[in-house]
Amino acid sequence: MKYFNFTSPGSTLQLQCSSFQLQGSRRCRKDFLQVTTLGFSRRFCGKKSSFVVSRNSRRIITRFRTNARGSSRGFSCSVSASECGVVNRVTRIVGGVETEVNEYPWMVSLRYSDSMEHICGASVLAGGWVLTAAHCTEFLSASDLVVVVGDHDVTANDETSAQAFNVAQIVNHPMYDDDTLDNDVALLRLASQIQFPEDNTVGRVCLPEAGQTYDSVTATVSGWGTVAEDGADSPVLLEVSVPTLSNAECNVFLGGEVTANMLCAGVPEGGRDSCQGDSGGPLVTEEGGEVKQIGVVSWGFGCGQPNSPGVYARVTSYLSWISSYVTEC
After folding, report:
1. Cα 196 to Cα 254: distance, rounded to the nearest angstrom
2. Are 95 and 271 in contact, with CB atoms under 8 Å apart?
3. Which residues lie below 8 Å from residue 324, measured CB to CB, with a gap of 6+?
4. What does the alpha-carbon distance between residue 148 and residue 301 come to, in Å, rounded to a whole number?
5. Residues paired with 282 in a beta bridge
6. Alpha carbon distance 2, 5 (integer Å)
7. Is it the case that residue 327 has pLDDT exceeding 90?
8. 325 and 171 in contact (C-beta within 8 Å)?
9. How far is CA 274 from the centre of its chain?
10. DSSP 8-state secondary structure symbol assigned to residue 236
């Protein structure tokens, strides 16, 4: 039995094993490799292709059992540690400013596969999954999309940190309503795993705490969308800070159209907001030394208009749904 520990909060331990063939029944009672960590325990046996187990946990335990009655070519496993919600800030949208290059390493540019045109934002949840808005993907197939991580200027091709991935599966929320934009979230499963470099130019965003409302907190939204309503897209990643509102406050401005699955952010005077092209991108806040995604850019009346907050899908409403697909979080 082997224990692997990592002391930093918000860390992810990732176990990656090569392919193997172990004697064993369906229940893996003879030869097996058992992996146990937070919320996950499984035995692997028989013929198995290479696989990855990754969890937001400080400990991962492996147990290998064999009766040594047969031999094979063997296999190997390696463990690595990474953290979520770590910004790359040297110093420190509508009404926004340009971010540092790779300041928010979880930012994703979602693009058409044929033209590589940016269409929406998204965020990295795990090596094989990103989170975006359902209205970005509802009429598209997986082959229509490419996910680009580690990018800053979407018009340039000279950024060594950028990685492009094909999409293997689109998982729109089953209760998504394209009339009200309730449940406006989607998961994209990538065709291959993101490689997280040691310099954190590409990284994961942390998920928020269940049960938290995140009312009246300072949040940041980032994206490559238009810099004004019906304006031109920004070639570089922009960010803007906005305070969140309670749903009761927001519905005063938006006429009761905000559901419990939504979160609002903005200032009464307007001028700071997400806009077209920012859809699907993350609204984040710092909490406990980590950056946590509390919203997904969804909808609004115009961009940056007075008394018209931006509306985001509330991520805490979807933690169980996300974890049913994304076991690495």
Report:
1. 40
2. yes
3. none
4. 28
5. 296
6. 10
7. no
8. yes
9. 18
10. B
Joined tokens for residue 23: 């004697």
Q: How confident is the model at residue 92 (pLDDT cuts 50, 70, 90)?
A: very low
CA atoms within 13 A on the CB side of 290: 21
100-120 burial, b for 16+ CB within 10 Å, e for fewer? Answer: ebbbbbbbbbbbebeeeebbb
**Look-up of token digits 């596969």:** 113
Give CA separation, 11 vs 54, 62, 299, in Å. Answer: 10, 18, 32
Cα 101 to Cα 152: distance, rounded to the nearest angstrom: 6
Residue 251, φ and ψ in degrees, nearest 5: -70, -20
What are residue 73's DSSP bridge partners?
none
User: If you search the block for the tokens 């930093």, which residue do you land on?
Assistant: 8
Confidence grade of residue 91 (pLDDT, cut at 50, 70, 90): very low
pLDDT tens for each residue of 231-281: 566 788 888 888 999 999 999 999 999 999 999 998 776 555 465 568 899
Residue type, 183: N
DSSP three-state, residue 146: strand
Catalytic residues: 135, 184, 279
Number of H helices, E strands in the chain: 3, 22
Sheet containing strand 40-44, edge to edge, reads: 2-5, 59-65, 32-37, 40-44
pLDDT at 281: 94
- Residue whose tokens read 């509390």: 294
Task: Give start and end residues of each alpha helix (H) in 91-158.
Answer: 134-137
Strands annotated E in 51-137: 51-55, 59-65, 77-83, 97-98, 107-112, 118-126, 129-132
Q: pLDDT higher for 35 or 209?
A: 209
CA–CA separation, 293 vs 105, rounded Å? 13
